[in-house]
Amino acid sequence: MAGLQTGIDSAGRGDYLPRNTLRQGVYVPTPDPQKLTELENRIARMKAATAPKPAKEEHYTMANMAWRMVIELVAGIAIGFGIGYGLDWLFGTVPIFLILFIGLGFVAGVRTMMRTAQEVQNMHMAKATDEKEG
Fold first, then answer.
1. From the centroid of its chain, how far is CA 110?
2. Do the Cβ atoms of 75 and 53 come closer than 8 Å?
3. Which 3 state secondary structure label does DSSP give 76?
4. From CA 22, how far away is CA 10, in angstroms rounded?
5. What is the rounded (10 degree) CA torsion for 126, 128, 132, 134?
6. CA-CA distance, 53 to 126, in Å (whole number)?
């Protein structure tokens, strides 16, 4: 093995390759194209096997959906409070508008929450149908 050296390849990439030195110069064997193609195919298969599955239109996790529902309810109540307080201040009345609009804001928030719950249910039903078919 007197003719075998290791060192930086001619392209200067810094990786170490075995080199056969001859009296005329340095000889670096060329890689087999068939082996390279096989290696690329194996790498592609391994990447495909370990790649995460794409989410099927599932933009939100359950925790995100729960927070969305809470925020919708609180926003409805807060908007109702703001409108009711503003009308009571504008007309100089007792807090009749405040109570009325807080109630309306609560009802609007609950209706929005129910729509979100229906959306979640439809998403789960579609997912269950896809799993049965596929």
1. 29
2. no
3. helix
4. 15
5. 60
6. 17
Q: Are 105 and 79 in contact (CB under 8 A)?
A: yes
Give yes or no for residue 69 having a pLDDT over 90: yes
Contact 73, 110 (CB under 8 A): yes
pLDDT tens digits along 18-30 = 555 455 566 667 7
CA angle 90, 92, 94 (to 5 degrees): 120
Residue reference for tokens 């009749």: 96
Question: What residues contact residue 91 under an 8 Å CB cut-off, 6+ apart?
Answer: 97
Nearest 5°: phi and psi at 7?
Answer: 175, -170
Instruction: Check whether 14 has a pLDDT greater than 60.
Output: no
Cα distance between residue 126 and residue 65, in whole Å: 17
Q: Where are the beta strands (DSSP E) in the chain?
A: 4-8, 16-21, 26-27
Considering all CA atoms of the chain, what is the largest pairwise distance in Å, rounded to the nearest integer? 106
